[in-house]
Amino acid sequence: MPGPGRSCPLAYRYPPEDLAGPAAFEATTLYVVGGLYGNTCALDAVVRRAAAEPIPPEVVFNGDFHYLDAHPSAFRAIADGVLARRATLGNVEYALTADAVELGCGCDYPDYIGDTVVADSNAVVERLRGIAAGFPEHLARLAELPRHLTVTVGGRRVAIVHGDPESLAGWKLALEAVEPGDETARARTGWSGTSTSTRVIADWCIRADVEVICCTHTGLPYAQDVQRDAHRYLVANSGSAGLPNFTGLRHGVITRLSTDPVAPADSLYGIDLAGLSFAALPVYYDIDRWTSEFLATWPPGTPGHHGYNPRVTDGTWLRLEQAARGRVRLTPG
Questions:
Q1: Residues paired with 62 in a beta bridge
Q2: Which residues, in sequence order, are CB contacts of 155 under 8 Å at separation 6+?
Q3: 229: left (phi > 0), else alpha (psi -120 to 50), else beta?
């Protein structure tokens, strides 16, 4: 039996058809914010960025907004800021509200992710549970959050999931899993298993009656379009809003979908889907303040420091150009 951090409870599972129901709301511009990971500075940056839009966007936090915020003041700030807007469950939020402590972090890590990563994640969430216990009203609200949302942007249907269209913590839309295979990503992650074909992605979109799938969970951002007959679909994995995502760059990433054809000048990469504009946006948070908060909560010798200090400090191995796949293109900025 899979141990803590690698298990997948039945409650995680759903068919893509569950996404085919009525849209929860309509937007002109939509921000999808994944992997905030308890970074209060990134939350502030997202709120400021949204306020600067010509028309205020709808903002959805699609899970794992809690994680490294294992301090009462930080936990409260994330709780109040996120739930003042729209949100869906991530595995961290599910783990905080579940009775099954043996679930661990709830990440459903695949076999190719090392045991040390799993152990660190389990320990971080175990400590976070102790902080969360002091916020019973917030936990009750978390327990009511949906596992996914379907919305419309300019009349175009968009699925917002945490993991993939079959599981809250699914890894089938990880950069390393999706075809055509990125050999660098597969070598760096140690990926093994069954790849996710473009046919599978198109089938998910057809079954869910959506044109775009927005996800996060697996930590590395990318966007890739998929063609099926006369229809074009898009997967937008935003990686992490609260941690660096690319080599040499220390900002977070969020997804923006809009009917406005003019993307923000600092967009990282994007594509136009016949009038629906996608752009990956940087989240320029206060690095010094966040690093100070992180180290105060997770000093050397703690699992949070061991698991995340290298990324907080140095970013990842992923090059920006690896995130623009298919017809998605880097944007000057």
A1: 88
A2: 26
A3: left
Widest pairwise Cα distance in the chain: 54
Q: Which two tokens stand for residue 307?
A: 């698991």
99 vs 3, 9, 37, 127, 143, CA distance in Å?
A: 16, 12, 22, 15, 11
| CATH number for the domain running over 10-178+206-330 | 3.60.21.10
* Selection from 31, 11, 25, 27 nearest residue 147 by Cα: 11
How far apart are alpha carbons 9 and 225 in whole angstroms?
Answer: 30
Judge residue 229's burial from the number of C-beta atoms within 10 Å of its C-beta, 0-12 exposed, 13-18 middle, 19 or more buried: exposed
Number of H helices and E strands in the chain, helices first, is 9, 14
Cα distance between residue 4 and residue 274, in whole Å = 44
pLDDT (tens digit per residue) in 193-222: 999 999 999 999 999 999 999 999 999 999
Q: What is the pLDDT of residues 257-280, one digit of tens each?
A: 999 999 999 999 999 999 999 999
Cα distances (angstroms) measured from residue 257 to each of 6, 66, 244: 32, 24, 21
Is the whole model's pTM more than 0.70, yes or no?
yes
